[in-house]
Amino acid sequence: MAAGNVEGSGREWVNWAGDQSCTPLEVARPASRDELAEVIGAAATAGRKVSVAGSGHSFTEAAMTEGTMVRVESLKGVLDADPGSGLVRVGAGTVLADLNEELAALGLAMENLGDIDRQTLAGAISTGTHGTGARLRNISAQVEGLELVLADASVRHLTAATHPELLRAARVGVGALGAIAAVTMRCVPAFTLSRVDTPRPRDEVFDSFQKLADANDHFELFTFPYADNVLVLERNRSQEPPRPRRRAAAYLNDVVLENWALGALSATGKAFPGWIPSLSRLAGRLASGSRTLDRSDRVFANDRRVRFTEMEYGIPREHGPVAARRVIEWVRENEYPVFFPIEMRVAAGDDASLSPSHDRDTAYIAVHQYRGMEWRPYFEAVEEIMDSYAGRPHWGKRHFQTAATLAPRYPAWAEFQRARDELDPGRVFTNDYVERVLGP
In angstroms, rounded to a whole number, what is the distance separating the alpha carbons of residues 141 and 264? Predict the structure, then answer.
């Protein structure tokens, strides 16, 4: 092991979905911010490109490199905390599930989370990962400060007070500005969420989508394209104490029903594509109502064991239902073999330069395809629909956009490029994906 915890690679890196891979020249595993700076400075001096990899939950090529791959798993845990103000300084490689446990011990929580908690904190904010809630912004909007290691091994401390424009850019930086060493998050007092899942007729829910979004703290839905109902998830804050489900009940719902059954039906659809419409209707009927009252992070997150690939777009919220209807119509008209459900969520606008929700309240529409099944024609058709609403892709999920097609959709595009020129003028933190979506 060389200085700075750098080792020769030769090993293939593969993402969570198993559909993106690369073989880095070397892999760095820094155990501290100083080591992180050391390995990045050495790589830049040697002329190698640098990419930072978290838990591999991105469906894009964002973390891939043939140069130096930096693994940040050791930069983890709560480093400093002020429960009174809610400000918590956290290592960039902290997995969200672990962070939630540490915050709970401090009597704190994150105000909003996505439905997967296996990402690293740095990866989640860098790709614009979000939860749902008409009045709540994405995870990056909870960031009060960043410690960013640059190619010259220097550390920039970015806050809204000292570097507002740079912080707006770095909060959703797509890995293109530097390596995040630590993040200062604005947390809230721990709270309980009540979750109610209800199957309802799809047209009825789409017609009342905006009303439902406004009526709940957190609102989302899942619908199988060939079924005619949706599963509505409504989560709201409760003053009652948490009542965690018994282990057997949680296992039955989270593992047996949401994973084993989904996996079995998906595998059957892959083997017999002609059965998919019938399987979808069966899955829609199996989606049953349930209630949960528990600590917020436990209600936000789901256990995902079935592998898939995904595309997600953010569009102006008012267009969400009609856009989703158009996706479903395309699937049915083309008899496309897709079994996985479509997911819809909402989020409030924010000010991060490259946030998909920048300066507009957003409806997010996510489509998925089971691992190993053809996905490109489906995703291309969905993207064409989303393009008609000036859709902005989730930076960690599949899309076919380029810098030329994306620039007009982001009012702060030039602001981000100025930050990139200042923080990484030599373009050390780049790869083919970054060059495609952000330019050279």
Answer: 38
Domains of the chain and any CATH numbers: 78-189 (3.30.465.10), 192-399 (3.40.462.10)
Q: For strands 68-71 and 50-53, give the pairing.
A: parallel
| C-alpha separations of 288 from 197, 253, 265, 416, 420 in Å | 7, 10, 16, 45, 48
pLDDT digits (tens, 9 = 90+) for 270-298: 999 999 999 998 888 877 778 999 999 99
Question: Which residues are 87's β-sheet partners?
Answer: 82, 186
**Between β-strands 218-223 and 229-238, what pairing exists: parallel, antiparallel or unpaired?**
antiparallel
CB atoms within 10 A of CB 64: 21
CB 346 within 8 A of CB 361: yes
Nearest CA to 58 out of 395, 307, 367, 435 is that of 395
Rounded to whole angstroms, the Cα distance separating 416 from 395 reads 14
How large is the average pLDDT for residues 121-139? 96
The model's pLDDT over 299-348, given as tens digits with 9 standing for 90+, comes to 999 887 889 999 999 999 999 999 999 999 999 999 999 999 999 999 99
Cα 110 to the center of its chain, rounded Å: 15
